[in-house]
Amino acid sequence: MKMFRNFSIKNKLIILILMVSLSVIGLGSALIIYYDIKTFKNNMVNSTDILTKFLTEFCQGPLAFDRGDELHEELGKLKGLTFIENACVYDKDGEEFAVYKKSPGNFAPPEPEERASSKFRGDYLHVFRPVLYKDKSYGTLYIKASTAELDQKIKDHLKTMGIGLIGLIILTYLLAARFQGMISRPILRLAEVTKRITRDADYSVRVKKQGANEIGTLYEGFNNMLEQIHLREKQRDEAEAEQGRLMVELEEKNEELEQVVYVTSHDLRSPLVNIQGFSKELGYSLKEFSSLLATEKMPPDVKKKFSLILEEDVPDSLKYILSSTARMDSLLSGLLKLSRVGQTTTTSNNIDMNELITEISNAFEFQIKEGGVEFKVGDLPSCFGNDDQITQMFSNLLNNALKYLDPNRPGKIHITGRQEGDRIIYCVADNGIGIPVKYQKRVFEIFHRLNPEETNGEGLGLTIVSKIISNHGGDIWIESEPGKGSRFFISLSAGKPGKKTN
Predict the structure, then answer these.
(1) Distance between CA atoms of 497 and 383, rounded to whole angstroms?
(2) Is 326 in contact with 456 (CB distance < 8 Å)?
(3) Are 404 and 433 in contact (CB under 8 A)?
(4) What digits encode the pLDDT tens for the residues 248-273?
């Protein structure tokens, strides 16, 4: 049955037609043979009955008048009937009255039967017929007839039927091989079109509908399916082309934006330095002007007015100018760092994270000790990336954890890592103030700070982390609860031993 599944539809149809046809032919032939054999036997029984009927009428006189010699002579005439082997006439007492033997030898007649009967036993037909005259029994006639001629007739008949059956099988096969195409040819044509579509990916091909039967319905459905696929393929190609165009445009805009950020942050620092420098110079001049004003003589009210301007108004203004320029300088420095993350050409390799985190923790050793922080690092698996950027990323995460520790309890920072398939998952966990759910996505936005009044910085640390993660094809997510702490998960490529790319 398993082998049958692998046959072509053409061969399957031929086999099925042959199986059905042979079943019908075989059953029909068996019924015909059964009927013919039964007919042959009935004909032999009928022929024998006619003979026994004639003989019983002849036996009436000899049995009635005890003329055995006469009956022996008449039974001898049975030699002309080659199928009669033996015959015996019994008197009314069941004793042998006359016997016929076709060939010399012992013959033991069977016990006579009172009723007429015909029975096939072995290779012979045994017939008993009572000898009656006016419903009075005078004896019984027994005939033993050979079935050799019947057997030969049956064999000849079976041979003829066998030859006819073989001829029917051959004819059935030829007709099945010819007419199976009416079913298989449309399906094979459909299979050929399917194969061509698979090979060439050409969904504009159509199959011509032939007829309004089930095959026609299949063709129509197949064409409709191809139409839908062709339409979807066209839409997909258009969408991919549009996506490609948008990606190119996005890359150009990103490059332009990074260039603008870089140029802006770089070029704005020059006038900012001048503002800072001249503001300080102005401060020095004001101090000098104040000292001169103290030595000069002028009306008290005028001197008081100048003193108020020089000692309060102008210093306050300079204070705001200097703090604003310092803030602007910090923001421009952050923008410059962010633009350099996207512009720098990186070399990636396998990184020993245990060694890298040790170097980072040494750089933060003072802050960790000063804050009394419990700092633990697990056995970290290596990852694949750029040393400088991965160092900057974990430095920003560690700095962020130290910055947002809860002052009301001893700080804890733990760094762990595990491998999942071809990815390495690192976790930087702390017991700090935590991040509300509504802010957990915004912390990666540029210039966003959780508590700007209580913490220093330009709000670019996690933005740079997100940018580095994106450059490495990784992922980052947060699990945090206010008052309990935060866990930053970083997914990076495990890489392969000795692999390096530029």
Answers:
(1) 10
(2) no
(3) yes
(4) 877 776 665 666 566 565 556 566 66
Contact residues for 337 (Cβ-Cβ < 8 A; gap 6+): 460, 464
Residue 364 token pair: 């933060």
Give pLDDT tens digits for 142-164: 888 888 888 888 888 888 888 88
Beta pairing, strands 475-481 & 412-420: unpaired
* Contact indicator for 393, 357 with CB cutoff of 8 Å: no
d(Cα 143, Cα 380) in Å, to the nearest integer?
Answer: 110
The two tokens of residue 253 are: 């805009």
Query: What are the residues whose beta carbons fall under 8 Å from the beta carbon of 235, sequence distance 6 or more?
Result: none
Maximum separation of any 2 CA atoms in the chain, in Å: 199
Rounded to the nearest angstrom, the gap between the alpha carbon of residue 428 and the centroid of all alpha carbons in its chain is 38
Q: Is 2 exposed, middle or buried (0-12, 13-18, 19+ CB in 10 A)?
A: exposed
- The two tokens of residue 418 are 């595990």
Q: Are strands 136-146 and 349-351 parallel, antiparallel or unpaired?
A: unpaired
Q: How many angstroms from the chain centroid is the CA of residue 281?
A: 76
Burial (Cβ within 10 Å: 0-12, 13-18, ≥19) of residue 85 = buried
The answer to whether residues 346 and 286 touch, using CB atoms and an 8 Å cutoff, is: no
Sheet holding 374-377, edge to edge: 374-377, 412-420, 423-430, 485-493, 475-481
Do 250 and 327 touch, CB atoms closer than 8 A?
no
Say whether pLDDT at 331 is over 80: no
Instruction: Tokens for 66, please give them.
Output: 């005890």
3-state secondary structure of 440: coil
**Entry field: residues in the chain:** 502
Run of H or E residues at 194: helix 181-200
Residue/partner pairs of 324-332 with CB below 8 Å, 24 or more apart:
325/272, 325/275, 325/276, 325/279, 326/276, 328/268, 328/272, 329/269, 329/272, 329/276, 330/457, 330/458, 331/447, 331/458, 332/264, 332/265, 332/268, 332/269, 332/272
User: How open is the CA angle 87-90-92, to the nearest 5 degrees?
Assistant: 160
The pair of three-digit structure tokens given for residue 352, joined into one six-digit string:
């020993």
CA-CA distances (angstroms) from residue 73 to 59, 77, 81, 93? 12, 7, 15, 22
Integer CA distances (angstroms), 229 to 14, 191, 201, in order = 35, 17, 11
> Looking up tokens 């490059």, which residue turns up?
255
Q: Which residue has the tokens 């703090």?
A: 323
> Looking at the whole model, is its pTM more than 0.70?
no
First-to-final CA distance of the chain:
58
User: For residues 287 and 283, what is the distance between their CA atoms, to the nearest angstrom?
Assistant: 6
pLDDT of residue 500: 42
| Strand runs labelled E in 4-112 | 84-91, 96-101
Rounded distance, CA 372 to CA 365, Å?
Answer: 11
